[in-house]
Amino acid sequence: MTISKLLDQRLSRAMQAAGIADTFPAVIKPSGRPEFGDYQANGIMAAAKAVKTNPRELATRVLEQLELDDVADKVEIAGPGFINIHLKNSWLARQAKALLTADSLLEKTASPETIVIDYSGPNLAKEMHVGHLRSTIIGDAVARTLDYLGHTVIRQNHVGDWGTQFGMLIAHLIEQPDHERDVQLADLETFYRQAKIRFDEDEAFAERARHFVVKLQAGDPECLQHWQQFIAVSLQHCEEVYNKLNVLLTRADVKPESAYNKDLPGIISTLDARGLLTRDEGALCVFLEEFKGKDGNIVPAIVQKSDGGYLYATTDLAALQYRQQVLQASRILYFVDARQSLHLNQVFSIAKKAGFVKPSTSLEHMAFGTMMGKDGKPFKTREGGTVKLVDLLGEAEQRAFQLVTRKNPELDETERQHIAHIVGIGAVKYADLSKNRTSDYIFNWDTMLSFEGNTAPYLQYAYARISSIFRKAEVVDTQADIQLHQAAEHQLALKLLQFSDAVHSVASEGSPNLLCNYLFELSGNFMTFYEACPILKADDAVRDSRLQLAQLTANTLKTGLELLGIDVMERM
């Protein structure tokens, strides 16, 4: 049980014993300043206001019922009715030691769920670009976190493999004299650019492309053969990017649009049977009152075009039906660009009204903002083109290699390359993950590769620094008790015991920046402890205790960064 949950239980029990209704929460928060204690209970003011009584008098009655002698040194009323809680050094020390010797840094959830996470989802037939980065790494971090907590996590990579772009590619490819040869990734890039130009400028070609889409979806053998080649090459490229990014998506997690093709007529039939369909200018649409535009008119969700073709909404409904009825998900998370909010909210609402998804199933759009360049516009190449993700990651490793070479020229090149890979990729990921998920952010090489501030290199260096302490220590008594005497020891132990709260926050809110903030604060606490409390020069018992705190810090930093998909090193 986390400290905050323990205190919440004790305070809630005391509040009810003092006559406060159980509808009023204790509102337990970590204290902003050590002099005000370690935690504050802020819920009494709201309760006092509701029953029209003096909040300090009510707080006094709560304290009379509160049982915290085993946990706290001092509990006091502050301000208009806050309760400040100062935790005991001895209690914190025992909790920290128990955490150090446990199999895991937190208790697994008592109520595991089956959670489907939809993330990455690139369109195939061309290389992944920077626009795919946020979905891929934020989704991966949340998937890792939920898995660590003991949930059954099912990753779903909903790749686009069934649209107009494949008709374009097939139409262009079969007109090439050597179209029977194997397609390579470079061919796909070239073919796509050439085919798109022809599609936009040549109506006859565009018509042929649309015709090939129909043939493909009807199962034409030649079209399927070319299509399967495009898919195989594209997925191989995606897997190479995922491996470089240290993302856990595999080929087995791919559930493409085409997988739902056979289900789409049934989706339309069900919508019709539920009275949700309206024909509008030949197309089949769903009009829901809750989705009105600025003009007051309902924004329709089109599920079938006038020519019989299906749309993203239809496929997304089929995917939801599969995830509910086959995968048995109780929670489904979509890590998709914020610009898709209307689309996904419509799909979620339709899915529940049509019965594709149970009313109790949680459907959550984990929207995210855009990676911006220094000019405040979406990140582009100097020529104004789309930045390929593999190029971005390559540049990150190159810049990190130059940095490592400047700092440690004595290391051999192989080791510098290894460090550069871990530092460079970690820097790109952490620069993104540490930002509020819903916000746009400015991409900046200098800040993300800095060894100062809230960056991956700073945290990786903190871990490496602790590792160097143990190399110097040589002999460590792992059975030693933890003792807390100094304020810096108290604050470090307290922060270490708050790891579970940070992880649970990521799991509930889908926001890895909460864990990033925690790890950065933990590193700051350790540096303060390191400067104020000599480790290797201390007397034996104190030395062993402080080494235990250092080990728990290293374990927590490593685990936290692993949940973000970022590696650490013993030496940097």
Question: What does this entry look like structurally?
Answer:
- With 572 residues, this protein is of the alpha/beta class.
- Among the domains are: 3-87, Gyrase A, domain 2; 164-250, no CATH class; 456-563, Isoleucyl-tRNA Synthetase, Domain 1 (Orthogonal Bundle).
- It has helices at 3-17, 44-51, 55-65, 89-101, 133-148, 164-173, 185-201, 203-217, 221-245, 264-273, 312-325, 341-354, 389-407, 413-433, 445-448, 456-473, 487-496, 499-509, 513-532, 540-563, and strands at 28-30, 39-41, 72-78, 82-87, 114-118, 152-156, 277-280, 283-286, 301-304, 331-334, 362-365, 371-372, 441-442.
- The radius of gyration is 28 Å and the shape is globular.
- The model has no long low-confidence stretch (mean pLDDT 93).
Describe how the helices and strands are arranged:
Blueprint: H1 3-17, E1 28-30, E2 39-41, H2 44-51, H3 55-65, E3 72-78, E4 82-87, H4 89-101, E5 114-118, H5 133-148, E6 152-156, H6 164-173, H7 185-201, H8 203-217, H9 221-245, H10 264-273, E7 277-280, E8 283-286, E9 301-304, H11 312-325, E10 331-334, H12 341-354, E11 362-365, E12 371-372, H13 389-407, H14 413-433, E13 441-442, H15 445-448, H16 456-473, H17 487-496, H18 499-509, H19 513-532, H20 540-563
Parallel strand pairs: 5-6, 5-10, 10-11, 12-13
Antiparallel strand pairs: 1-2, 2-4, 3-4, 7-8, 8-9
